[in-house]
Specification:
Length: 228
């Protein structure tokens, strides 16, 4: 029996909830960092609503703090978020049939965390008339928690001591996203190569090492998969 739209929506929210444990502290840290970079509370919150991309927001706040030209900030944010093109290409076959308004909404809500649970759900259940509501539920849960955690970080401001070390929650979140998806040799090799390449390319400017390591890992992963 196929799930209704509401069932799909709340299942997406439910599957996203464990990931939010790591996302919420990350959003709070961004709120604190944005204020320390010189942004006013409205602009700091608006960045979470408009850009809605944690790594790009962190980098933008740091570049604003040191007086980087706007064009450089925009290009850096574009480079950091290139990975979303890979996410979009992966999900495109599952949402191709949707009207433009749904595609636009889901594209806005597409993040690392929403992609992780959504693609697994599509692979598990395939395309159904209401399956996009799962995507919407997971994306909206992430969006809501990000806005609230940003607001809390802005409210707390510098009252959050650095000794809390909340930044460790981000890598733990991504580890939790990746490990369940490693089901074959190609996936394991891709993850291993991405980890090693990220360390090797760490010194690249503007965080371009992340893009380079992703491209290298994907290329080697595809090579391993074709040999299988």
């Amino acid at each position: 029996m196929q799930k209704t739209s509401s069932q799909q929506f709340f299942l997406g929210v439910k599957d996203e909830l464990p990931i939010l444990v790591g996302v919420i502290p990350f959003g709070m840290i961004y709120g604190v960092l944005a204020l320390s970079a010189g942004l006013n509370p409205f602009d700091a919150q608006a960045m979470s609503a408009v850009i809605f991309a944690g790594s790009a927001q962190f980098m933008s706040a740091q570049l604003i703090k040191v007086g980087t030209p706007a064009l450089v900030i925009i290009l850096t944010g574009f480079a950091i978020n290139l990975r979303h093109a890979l996410y979009s290409a992966t999900l495109a076959p599952y949402v191709r049939h949707l009207p433009l308004r749904w595609k636009a909404l889901l594209a806005y809500l597409l993040t690392d965390e929403a992609f992780a649970v959504t693609v697994l759900n599509y692979q598990r259940e395939g395309i159904t008339p209401q399956s996009h509501w799962y995507f919407f539920g997971s994306g909206l849960a992430l969006w809501t928690s990000w806005q609230i955690s940003t607001a809390v970080g802005i409210f707390l401001g510098t009252q959050v001591p650095e000794s809390w070390g909340l930044d460790f929650t981000l890598p733990l979140t991504f580890i939790a996203l990746v490990v369940p998806a490693l089901k074959d040799r190609a996936g394991i090799v891709t993850a291993a190569v991405a980890s090693l390449a990220a360390l090797a390319f760490f010194s690249f400017p503007y965080k371009l090492g992340l893009i380079a390591s992703a491209l290298v890992a994907v290329a080697i992963g595809l090579w391993v998969e074709t040999r299988q």
